[in-house]
Design goal:
Layout (H helix, E strand, L loop, with lengths): L1 H27 L3 E6 L5 E6 L5 H12 L7 E6 L5 E3 L6 H4 L6 E7 L12 H16 L7 H16 L23 H13 L6 H12 L10 E5 L4 E6 L3 E6 L2 E7 L3 E7 L2 E8 L2 E8 L3 H19 L9 E2 L9 E2 L6 H9 L17 H14 L14 H64 L5 H7 L2 H31 L1
Parallel strand pairs: 1-5
Antiparallel strand pairs: 1-2, 3-4, 3-5, 6-7, 6-12, 7-8, 8-9, 10-11, 11-12, 13-14
Helix pairs in contact: 4-7, 5-6, 5-7
GO molecular function: cytoskeletal protein binding
Pfam families: FA (PF08736), FERM_C (PF09380), FERM_M (PF00373), FERM_N (PF09379)
Membrane topology: Single-pass membrane protein
């Protein structure tokens, strides 16, 4: 009877394993919907599997556009904690997403071309133009009043063409929401330039003129990361084709060029930039709101440095977030570098693809709806404040807000300084403990090795000199010899006991 029951149990167990295995295979092949929002706020969707990599989505979008110069672009998503990320093309999409499907992402410019003149195709320039429009609207691209008026006029000319008094009423510019804060004075200047200076320009020419003006500005390509410096002052960190930049308010206070940056590293919420300028080593330290924000800042820096600094992608190496004694994050940029992208663009030989310009409504209500969608996908608060508004009423309002905040700042100053002091003390203690552990570990290796060399028959001059010192003879006679005899006695007793058994 037992012989008949055993095979049945084994067979039942085998069937259970087969069911579990089948279920896992089904879960791997589960279809997941992914929606990508494009630069003109239209959307495309596709179906992916659990093991589908990020490169599939990039190729899918580029095929949709018929885009060849695709290395400037990337896909961005926001996790449930409102932290932004760039999708890694080399990793599975499902392993990067912290939310459940269906997934929603955004197609954006990741690396801004250093010289728009070297972009080969009109389609690529148009997509970059859409990105610059977004940067202007969200307050990321800062400029003076005159430049702001010119950029706004280029956008109006590209969207509606030449000014026509029969079609465009006196307040036609009010239907365009170009800047986050758009004063009447700025609108009047935009109308003046649009009427008198841009007549006859096609959409292609107007878009190109906007790119030429935008790429000459300090904040071109800057994706601001809000941080605090060592004094607790709010700063915005970013990366451009030139290097690492730091802004306080509307003023750029640091520009460290890529060749001068030795290392980018982070530890928790603390970000460090190690640079060598004028044969002097400088370390800039900043603090982010969360460790995830700090890691994102570090990865963006590593990717931008690799893209803009090196001549070939084969020169890019894997970098770590910390020093050699402690394990940290490892990352390597795997795409083409800027020089390779420009070389590949120069070799493109095909009929230029047709550019389908989207007709976006320009009413304020429709823009507010689009803005709400964009903010939900791209939380960029706080933004770098826009300097384009020069109305006296707005200046007065800003002054009133500053007066209202003075009392609150005074009340919080003592507690804030106390907290910052504790943070700096904790950071110092943490660094000191790491250094102490590293020194002890090194000592535990060096001392036994030196002792073995001294007690060996190796005849080397510096070992011979150490053996002749009174201190070593005292150590040898009083400590080493008794210890060696004690160890030998214990070993002999153990061997004798083992032999008798």
């Amino acid at each position: 009877m037992f012989g008949c029951q055993c095979p049945r149990k084994k067979k039942k167990g085998t069937m259970t394993m087969m069911r579990l295995r089948t279920a896992s295979l089904r879960s791997l092949n589960l279809d997941m919907r992914c929606t990508i929002r494009l630069l003109d706020d239209t959307e495309i969707s596709c179906i992916i599997q659990r093991e589908t990599k990020g490169q599939f989505l990039l190729d899918h979008i580029c095929n949709h556009y018929n885009l060849l110069e695709k290395d400037y672009f990337g896909i961005r998503f926001v996790d449930p904690e409102k932290q932004r990320h760039w999708l890694d093309p080399t990793k599975a999409i499902s392993k990067q997403m912290k939310s459940h499907p269906p997934y929603t992402m955004c197609f954006r410019v990741k690396f801004y071309p250093h010289e728009p003149l070297k972009i080969k195709e009109e389609l690529t320039r148009y997509l970059l133009y859409l990105q610059i429009k977004r940067d202007i609207f969200h307050g990321r691209l800062l400029c003076c009043f005159a430049d702001a008026a010119f950029l706004g006029a280029c956008i109006v000319q590209a969207e509606i063409g030449d000014y026509d008094p029969d079609e465009h009423p006196d307040n036609y510019i009010c239907d365009f929401k170009i800047f986050p804060k758009q004063s009447q004075k700025l609108e009047r200047k935009i109308v003046e330039i649009h009427k008198n200076e841009l007549r006859g320009q096609s959409s292609t020419v107007s878009e190109f003129n906007l790119l030429l003006k935008a790429h000459s500005l300090e904040t071109y390509g800057v994706d601001p990361h809000p941080c605090k410096d060592s004094t607790g002052t709010t700063t915005f960190l970013g990366y451009t084709a030139a290097g690492f930049v730091v802004f306080q308010g509307n003023k750029r206070i640091h520009l460290i060029k890529w060749p001068d940056i030795c290392k980018l590293k982070f530890d928790g919420k603390t970000f460090h930039v190690v640079a060598m300028q004028k044969e002097k080593k400088n370390i800039l330290t900043y603090h982010t709101s969360t460790p995830a924000a700090c890691k994102h800042l570090w990865k963006c820096g590593v990717e931008n440095q690799a893209f803009y600094k090196y001549a070939k992608s084969s020169q890019v190496k894997t970098v770590t977030s910390s020093n050699i004694f402690f394990k940290g994050s490892r990352f390597r940029y795997c795409g083409k570098v800027a020089k390779e992208v420009v070389e590949a663009s120069s070799k493109i030989q095909r009929d230029p693809p047709e550019v389908h310009r989207s007709l976006i409504p320009h009413s304020r209500s429709s823009y507010s709806l689009n803005k709400q969608l964009i903010i939900n996908m791209e939380p960029l608060q706080p933004l770098i404040p826009s300097p384009n508004e020069e109305e006296e009423e707005e200046d007065t309002q800003i002054d009133e807000e500053e007066e209202e905040m003075k009392e609150a700042r005074k009340a919080l100053s003592w507690s804030y300084n106390f907290v910052m002091g504790n943070m700096q003390l904790n950071a110092f203690l943490k660094s000191f403990s790491k250094l102490l552990l590293a020194a002890l570990g090194l000592l535990m290796v060096v001392l036994p090795l030196l002792l073995i060399l001294l007690e060996s028959n190796l005849d080397v001059s510096f070992l011979r000199e150490i053996r002749l010192t009174p201190e070593f003879e005292q150590f040898h006679n009083e400590y080493y010899c008794p210890l060696r005899k004690w160890v030998a006695c214990k070993l002999s007793a153990a061997l004798h006991l083992f032999g008798s058994t």
